Amino acid sequence: MVQKKKGPPQGDLPQKMAAAPVEPKRRGRPRAYEPDVALGKALDLFRSTGFAATSLDDLSAATGMNRPSLYGAFGDKRELYIKSYQRYRDNARAVMGEIFRHDWPVREQLHKIFAAALDIYLSGEEGPRGCFTVMTAGSEAVADPDIRAMVQNALTELDMAFARCFRRAKEKGELPADADPAVLARLASATIHSIAVRARARAPRQELEAIVAGAIDVMVGKG
Q1: What is the rounded distance in angstroms from the CA atom of residue 128 to the CA atom of residue 197?
Q2: Per-residue pLDDT tens for 43-90?
Q3: Is the distance from CB of 73 to CB of 162 less than 8 angstroms?
Q4: Tens digit of pLDDT for each residue in 109-167?
Q5: How many CB atoms lie within 10 A of CB 99?
Q6: Can you tell me the distance from the alpha carbon of 61 to that of 42, in angstroms, rounded to the nearest whole number?
Q7: N or C end of the chain: smaller count of CB under 10 Å?
């Protein structure tokens, strides 16, 4: 009868064989929220109710995050507001910038620009929210220099985009030789701001489109 060889006593085994390696435990709880999603929820709330009327409890309910988590992820309420406004501007720039870059006939381009703006201003599950810059950031800009700088930058950026549009149209002979692209740009921007306010006041889209059509006739002549 062949005897099986016995291994050395457990105490004699090398340390690596005596016990399997144990992975270090992760510290803290896993993050239960997505920062981009939470910021989008905060943006929706600020667009609907503005800065002053939005409480931390409101933000906590909207984002599903408690106050310590909100502070840890975004800073205080003001910082979250600024981050929300920047997100709004980034989103709007992505949509509007694509239209501004095209080389369409000026009348067609203006109609597309204003239509895209109306899509933004009339959006909202609980009703039209207008433009963040005009409806809420403009109010906060009075007392907050950082927000004021963002608002001024947004207004200047829009003026410059429209000016490029009219300058290109003038070079192609679509506008009179004495047309001033800078003046037309400010008129177009003023129209954008007007329909933003009217959209927030729940003016019907048909009425806003009629305002846009009349403004375009003034800027580039009747087609």
Answers
A1: 10
A2: 999 999 999 999 999 999 999 999 999 999 999 999 999 999 999 999
A3: no
A4: 999 999 999 999 998 877 898 999 999 999 999 999 999 999 999 999 999 999 999 99
A5: 19
A6: 10
A7: N
Residue 138: count of CB within 10 angstroms of its CB = 17
Residues contacting residue 80 through CB under 8 Å, at least 6 positions apart? 39, 42, 59, 70, 74
Cα–Cα nearest to 89, from 136, 139, 38: 136
User: Which tokens sit at 14?
Assistant: 């090398």
How many whole angstroms separate alpha carbon 146 and alpha carbon 81? 11
Q: In one letter, which amino acid is 199?
A: A
Residues 33 and 11: their CA atoms lie apart, in Å, by 48
Q: Tell me which residue has tokens 């599903």.
A: 64
SS3 106: helix
The model's confidence at residue 16, banded by pLDDT at 50, 70 and 90, is: very low
Residue type for position 93: R
List the one residue out of 159, 157, 155, 160 whose CA is nearest residue 137. 155
Whether the Cβ atoms of residue 81 and residue 61 lie closer than 8 Å to each other: no
Collect all residues with Cβ–Cβ distance below 8 Å to 96 and sequence separation of at least 6: 113, 116, 117, 161
